[in-house]
Specification:
25 strands
Length: 513
Amino acid sequence: RILPKVINTTSQEERSGVLSEWVQSLGKVAPCPKCQPLKSDKAKLLPNLVWLSDKKQLSESLIRQLDYIKNNRNQGKHYYISLAPRVGNPEFKNERAYPSMTTPDAGFRLLTLYRYWNMIEYFFPYKYAIGEDWSGVLSEFIPKFIAANDSLAYRLTTLALIARIHDTHANLWGRDQILSQYKGAYYAPLQVRFVEEQAVVVNYYNDSLGAKTSLRKGDVITKVDGISVEELVRQRLPSTPASNQVTQLRDIAGDLMRGQTPQVELSILREGKEFTFPVERYPAEQLNLARNPSTREPDSSYRLVKENIGYLYLGKIRNAQLPRIMDAFRNTKGMVIDIRNYPSEFVVFTLSAYLLPKPAPFVKFTTGEVSYPGSFAWAPTLYVGKWNTRKHKPLLKPGKALPAHYPGKVVILVNELTQSQAEYTTMALRTAPNATVMGSQTAGADGNVSPIVLPGNLFTGISGIGVYYPDGKETQRIGIVPDVEAKPTLQGIREGRDEVLEKAIQLIESTAR
């Protein structure tokens, strides 16, 4: 509503006058004698408010007007923003979705940009880790959103904007019809993962349909419908939101052979020779697209992989099983905890109680401030072990004995599928005295997710709290850095081996108990 008047001004003074009148129309701001900035010793991040005193853009009277609002800002409840109880991630409230706007007009497309940009500017705990000037991103995307005048261009431009914050929790979520049509409804039954910097068939989404393709596990896909995989990756990286490149490649691999037709032509490399195959594609309902590409998902959450080595798969874990599991593993030399998945239940405090002889610090957070947007303060360090340090009470019910800690070697397996709660769980479990984290770079997105709605009924989100090691070391974008790096190889995939698990077993066997 205000933009046409702003655009039609001919001087800085005139523009400032229009903005000043608009701000004044929103209502009077009462004096706030209690309004104080966040103390710098408690702050991880402070707002960038340099623009408030930019005399090249704003008149002196408008600067005084805005400075007064800053110094007397609202300290009570807010209509558009609050922090989630007990956690502190932002809850963006009362933002209109405009669901009937398949293609929002230019004004609403700019609303998408301004809404998202401000949410990141003032309530994204990792804004400093984006890797570029966030203000410059705003300037860059204004003409891009104005030019995105059809439904697909609008969505792709929004995806490109979201990708610039480098957060694996940030994407366009849900089944948006326009994006689904663009990507296609058909999938090859081949599960692909980037191994040794190549797109490699690692499994099938459907065993019988996969076998019919003539492709084998370990085949390297070099072209899709005549376009090289390198070129497809180059095209898709800018609009593939994720915290780091290994996670971008993870997500690109999932859609690499997706398309709009029931058949795709694939060129593959096998034993030094190149072949081209026509491969049938199928609707999603005929395939198991949720199958884990890095492991053969076990039937149970635990088993003995050798007589003296236990294996725990957190993708199927249940807290109620832990006493039985730890009793079964009591006399083993070591235990492998596989978190190359998303834990099926929250076991941060329950499982760690079995692994630590005493409480240990494992994480601290930063949370935003509704009363001073753009600032993020440190919260107290959180502990794991035998005690629930939130309440300083035993984890188990009164009258039940605390578990004796597991004395054997613990190896925790991670890779690019280790994301969010899985990364948080790894941070907790690696505090065990005999623990080693093994694998490769994780997804680099931790902290509770804060949903965001954008015009056209587009749904996204951000990592809403900052998650750090007790010494302040970063996890966002970096992920969990393994103590021992281990990755699959082409040869191992062809032989059907889980080389990372094999290396974990070797480490345990070489460790004297």
